[in-house]
Amino acid sequence: MSTPITTHDAFADAAPEVLCRVLNRVALITLNRPAALNALSHGMVRELAALLERCRADDQIVAVVLRGAGEKGFCAGGDVRALYRSAAQCDAWLPFFVDEYRLDYAIHTFPKPVVALMDGITMGGGMGLAQGAALRVATERSKIAMPETRIGFVPDVGATHFLARMPVELELYVGLTGATLSGADALAAKLADLCVPSSWLDTFETRIENLKWDSDVLAALRRVFEPPCNVVPHAALDTQLPWIVRHFDKRSTVERTVATLTQELGREELSREHRQWLQATLDALLGHSPTMLAVTREALLRGRQMTLAESLRMELGIVARSIEEGDFREGVRAHLVDKDRKPRWAPASLVELRAERVRHFLTSPWKLAAHPLAELGNA
């Protein structure tokens, strides 16, 4: 039996952009903004946080499932256009990021199993929601990425922490280029726990309804979402990994990576697939914000030694720098507002980028005690 999640009628006024109901003790939370690929507004972030806290307190709820409305995506990220508008208004952008990061932290540390259905587009802020889940389910329709450097931003929402699950070379490749991964790629890269046919998810509610709960809730949920005979598609990363390792060594600067990619492109005996990968990777590094490429590289390397809370605090500081004195507004203008696809980065090239600027972006605007996320514990 399915019922609206109304713990003492507490959810009766749930915003339409977030839907929630309980099915056999599982809270099914739906991001309900399909026309915008379920991009997160500030109101959605606040509503999700409130719902999670009510699920935490309700002993009748044993698990949470996060999903997106429509067939195109789980969540395309934050509402970047809204953030672009707020960026011109002093610190008006800050409350969104503080609340979003607190929500992501709450999912990572939630005491009950959370399942994230990463069907379709799952990028940026959508990854922040999904990567804290105990069971991350991708499909053949998944398009998974952290594309922030393309718009003069940094992979955030805990990315400097959760991308560290991968080998460092793969982390740098994904974080710097914003490469889009398939569901099979995500499984290979440890960004998903399952990759299943999207059609299998069409009937998961029936399987939840028929569940008999025992002490291992997560194991029971895995049986719901994993088909009995699951064949995972080929992962392109399996072929690309040797190339990635060759060019994204942790000791290589972004400039050095650009140089080695350019050099290898000059070889005549390359396969078509190899040449296409080299060109796409080089084009990404040459087209993205030089400042944020260098800052992101250093942040990803630092994040490998940090707790989640420390990573989120570091990311918020970088976000502040990129919005107030960096390339964020220009990147959004070029790619999402005017759509001329010709961002005027400052500086315009890696050669012009000074080390002092990179260090400045990695220096927090706040002392620890005054940091907006100072209260986050160590996890």
From TrEMBL:
GO CC aspect terms: cytosol
Gene Ontology annotations of biological process type: L-valine catabolic process
Keywords of the record: Hydrolase
EC numbers, comma separated: 3.1.2.4
Keyword RNA-binding: no
Origin: domain of life: Bacteria
Catalytic activity: 3-hydroxy-2-methylpropanoyl-CoA + H2O = 3-hydroxy-2-methylpropanoate + CoA + H(+)
A GO molecular-function annotation: 3-hydroxyisobutyryl-CoA hydrolase activity
Segments forming domain Enoyl-CoA hydratase/isomerase: 27-362
Xref: Pfam families: ECH_2 (PF16113)
Gene3D superfamilies xref list: 2-enoyl-CoA Hydratase, Chain A, domain 1 (3.90.226.10)
Transmembrane segments: none
Name of protein: 3-hydroxyisobutyryl-CoA hydrolase
Phylogenetic lineage: Bacteria, Pseudomonadati, Pseudomonadota, Betaproteobacteria, Burkholderiales
